[in-house]
Each structure stands twice: as structure tokens, then as C-alpha cells.
Amino acid sequence: MIHMGFSGLVAFFLVRVFKVVSPVKMTFEIYATSVVPISAFFASSLWFGNTAYLHISVAFIQMLKALMPVATFVVAVMCGTDKARCDVFLNMVLVSVGVVISSYGEIHFNVIGTLYQVTGIFAEALRLVLTQVLLQKKGLTLNPITSLYYIAPCSFVFLFVPWYLLEKPGMEVSQIQFNFWIFFSNALCALALNFSIFLVIGRTGAVTIRVAGVLKDWILIALSTVIFPESTITGLNIIGYAIALCGVVMYNYLKVKDVRASQSSTESIPDRNSKDWKFEKKSSDIFVPNDIDNGGGSGGNGSASDIIVDEEAPLIQSSRLSHIGRTQLTNLVSGK
């Protein structure tokens, strides 16, 4: 809740006071039907995921997060944004089997904590699919700052409700030693995390984030066993997570193939359209900065694919102009 409030406040100053970026055209209908549901599921994923830390170890939580591709695939198929493919389905089965084995080998297994974490994972998957369905259908694209500007305050409200109803009654204010610098530095880290995710995707692409995510999980599991004595890892834990990791790596490989296939189809456009597209990439930073995912407006041109929604990129949408829009923009610049 503090993270969302701080991020929303910083984004407000950047948009309204310092005018680093301009706000998008946001009507009440779009806000109510798109931003509010996305913020609700985002807040749910944060609340359920953080509550799980009270019941299960950090290492086991990272192992359960291997289920994220499974949840996203299942929700996407149910919502009609993805097709049920046999190869992807087999990967999902492999990941699920690995997580089950890892859970069976967990010494401090807790049903409540596991349910909290799995619920948070599926809430995150629902938010990702809603972002793709609702925002893209309405033609709304958000850069990193405007994403936090619209979504963070709404998520703060959704996180305030369970805190006020469930957590605040059990808090004894006299026993709380509030250290401003600890909370402030922690909020700065959360803000830096959000921006760094957007910058990495804007400069490199979704594949890099996927590989970095696997490395991050291994580092977190190793550090948690050193820092927290209760995070004991068994041999069955390692075997199960290794199986799940194989499924995740295969899933990422399939995604890389899909991206390359979309790139090859884009490269088959006639030479004239390719020239218009190259010219447009240079001029689009001036005319339509909010429609290009350039990592926070620092001058990049984003990834090569048309639209990539990544599990590790919760708030951002990468978009490109349509061929008609590109032609109109080229004619406008050339004075035709």
C-alpha cells in the first residue's frame, strides 16, 4: 500500500507538476471499465502474494512462482486471447508436475500460505490478460510514468481496504517503531524496480526479462537459505524446481520462436512500406511519443514485435502504428 501510494505521488508530480510526459486521453468510461479492474487484480496479486510470506518460506514462494506461465496460459485460453497448443500444454504439465514435487519435498509446507501464493499468481495472470484485452481493444497505450499515474492510486485504494478491515484492528500502535528512512528507502526501491522493468523491456525486449527472471529466482532461493534459517531446501525441492524450470525454459523458447516468426512476417512487407516504416521510426518520437514503448521516454524505439505482453511487465503495452496511420504520418511529414 505504501509502495503504490508513493509511486502514484511521484508519477503525479512527473505528469502534472514537472510535465515530463503528457497524460493520455482517459475518459471516465475507459477508467471505470479498464483501469479499475486491472488495478483491482494488481492489488489482489500484491496482497495475496505478500500475505503468503507470513506462512511459507521465501525459497518455497519462488518455487511456486514457476506456476506463473501456467496460470497465464490457462487464463488466456479461457478468455480467448491465446489458442490451446499441444506443445505449450505439455510444457505447462511439466511445470505443474515439478511444482507438485517441490511442494511435496517442502519441510515447512503450509496449506494456507500455498493457497495465498497460488491465488496471487492467478490474480496476476488475470490482470495481465485484462491489460491485453481491455487496453488494447480501446487503443490505449501507457508509458512507464503514465502507467503508474493511472494505476498506482487506484491500486492504493484497493490495498487500503483490506489493510483497514483486516490488518489495522490487530495492530498495536504503541509497539510499532516507525522508521521513516527505512520505509522511504524501501518505497524508492519499489519505484526503481517498476521503472527498471519498463526500461529493460523497452531497450532489450521481453525475452531478456524472462531470462533475467529465471536468474533472479535462483539468486533469491540461494540468498534466502543463507539469510533465513527456516528456508531449508531439501533434495526433493531441488529436483522438483529443476523439472519446473525445464518447462519454463522450454516455454520461453517457444515464445522466442513466436517473436521471430512475427518479425519474419513483418520483414516480408514490400520495400516501399519498409522505407516508410524506417522513416517513421525516426519521426515517431516527435509526433507520437505516447504510442512508442521507449523505456520511459529516453529515446529508445522499443522491441521489434507488434504487441508483446510479458508476465514480468505488468503495466506496459508495446504498440506500433497501423499501416494506414504510418502512411498518413509519412504524408504529413513530407508535405503531401
Strand content: under 5%
Q: Helix amount, in percent?
A: over 70%
Q: What is the overall number of helices? A: 12
Question: How much is the average pLDDT?
Answer: 78
Radius of gyration: 21 Å
Largest sheet: none
Total beta strands: 0
The stretches of 5 or more residues where confidence is low (pLDDT under 50) are: 274-336
Intertermini distance: 52 Å
Order of helices and strands: HHHHHHHHHHHH
> What is the domain tally?
1
> What is the molecular shape?
globular
Structural class: mainly alpha
Plain-language structure description:
The protein has 336 residues and is mostly helical. It has one domain (2-334). Helix content is 71%, strand content 0%. It is built from 12 helices and no strands. The chain has helices at 2-17, 28-52, 58-64, 68-79, 86-104, 111-137, 144-167, 180-203, 206-227, 235-267, 271-287, 323-334. Helix 2 packs across helix 7 and helix 4 packs across helix 6 (111-137). The longest helix has 33 residues, at 235-267. It starts with a helix and ends with a helix. The model is unreliable at 274-336 (pLDDT under 50). InterPro entries: Sugar_P_trans_dom (IPR004853), TPT_transporter (IPR050186). Residues 7-252 form the Sugar phosphate transporter domain. It comes from Senna tora. This is Putative sugar phosphate/phosphate translocator. It is a multi-pass membrane protein.
